[in-house]
Design a protein that fits this description.
The protein has 305 residues and is α+β, with helices and mostly antiparallel strands. The chain folds into two domains: 159 residues, Beta-lactamase (3-Layer(aba) Sandwich); 133 residues, Probable Glutaminase Ybgj, Chain: A, domain 2 (Orthogonal Bundle). Helices cover 43% and strands 11% of the residues. The chain is built from eleven helices and eight strands. A hairpin with a 4-residue loop joins β6 and β7. The longest helix is centred in the N-terminal third of the chain and has 20 residues. It binds glutamine. Glutamine binds next to loops.
Length: 305
């Protein structure tokens, strides 16, 4: 690599001026738009961090691949596929994934809101509290020694400003895709989105997905390799919503963004990458974060294509 990570990060700083922090969840508006951090964890456990790599932020939609992993661990591939589709939606994260036919589970993708809310109802547990605690425990297992907490203020802020997600969840219930109490399912979803970590946490989780389900530090198996492959495939096609094609061309690796400003990227067989920069583009993806990943991909030849 010619340019150092520090040089790459510095060259992307001005891009933080071009985006906007999310405001539809009021608490997220407090984020500093000029933050930019990066962490890389190789599949052999080598670790590099730069910039605001230790600033905590809420993962938001980056919990979706972990929700999917928990659902796969609890139910297996066949049951999960019977309840949620795998086709790219080409639509924004909060779209009604509705074709010209009746709303059907196969029209949902687990990387967009409707699909992820449906996936919450597949997690096993006697109560939604227990389901959330199991998800939190899996997140901690994947993240190793990185901080994993719940940001109560962001959770409450989203829960009290969630008319769109509420509408989507009630549609799921109306069409028989979820059967449980809608508010309980939503509560699990909002709390999941309010889990916070830093760039090291995203790099660690991405590192497990890149390393066929094994912890990059210890090589201990944390999830079955076929589930890591399943999740990575869906990240590639829908992880950046209606920006997934552009991202595939510019960066070329499976990744998941969140409106908190994080991006988790998975470079199969090589590394997990965690990025934080909360100024977003019009699709809700970190603007400087994507630029940084584009430069990294060029410098380190990361594209899988
Ligand atoms: N909690 C957010 C929402 O449901 C997650 C969206 C996102 O990160 N793109 O709106």
């Amino acid at each position: 690599m010619n340019a150092s990570l520090e040089e790459l990060l510095t060259s992307c700083r001005s891009y933080t001026d071009l985006g906007k922090v999310a405001s539809y969840i009021p608490e997220l508006q407090k984020s500093d738009p000029h933050r930019l951090g990066l962490c890389i964890l190789s599949c052999h456990g080598e670790y590099q961090a730069e910039g605001d790599a230790r600033v905590l932020f809420t993962v938001q939609s980056i919990i979706k691949p972990i929700l999917l992993l928990q659902a796969l661990l609890d139910n297996g591939v066949d049951v999960v596929r019977a309840h949620v589709g795998v086709e790219a939606t080409g639509k924004p994260f909060d779209a009604i994934n509705y074709t010209d036919q009746i709303l059907d589970s196969q029209h949902l993708n687990p990387m967009v809101n409707m699909g992820a809310i449906a996936v919450c109802s597949l997690i096993h547990g006697g109560s939604y509290e227990e389901r959330f605690q199991r998800l939190l425990a899996l997140t901690r297992t994947l993240a190793g020694d990185a901080p994993i907490q719940v940001n109560e203020a962001v959770y409450r802020s989203e829960k009290s400003h969630a008319t769109k997600n509420r509408a989507l969840a009630y549609l799921l219930k109306t069409y028989g895709i979820i059967h449980d109490d809608v508010e309980e399912v939503l509560d699990c979803y909002f709390r999941s989105c309010a889990i916070s970590t830093d760039c090291t946490g995203l790099a660690r989780i991405g590192g497990v997905l890149a390393n066929q389900g094994r912890c990059p530090d210890t090589q201990k198996a944390l999830i079955p390799p076929e589930y890591a492959r399943f999740v990575n495939a869906i990240l590639m096609t829908c992880g950046m919503y209606d920006g997934s094609g552009d991202f595939a061309v510019r960066v070329g690796v499976p990744a998941k963004s969140g409106v908190g400003g994080g991006i988790m990227a998975v470079v199969p067989g090589r590394m997990g990458i965690g990025i934080y920069s909360p100024a977003l583009d019009e699709k809700g993806n970190s603007l400087a974060g994507i630029r940084l990943l584009e430069l990294l991909s060029q410098a380190m030849d990361l594209s899988i294509f």
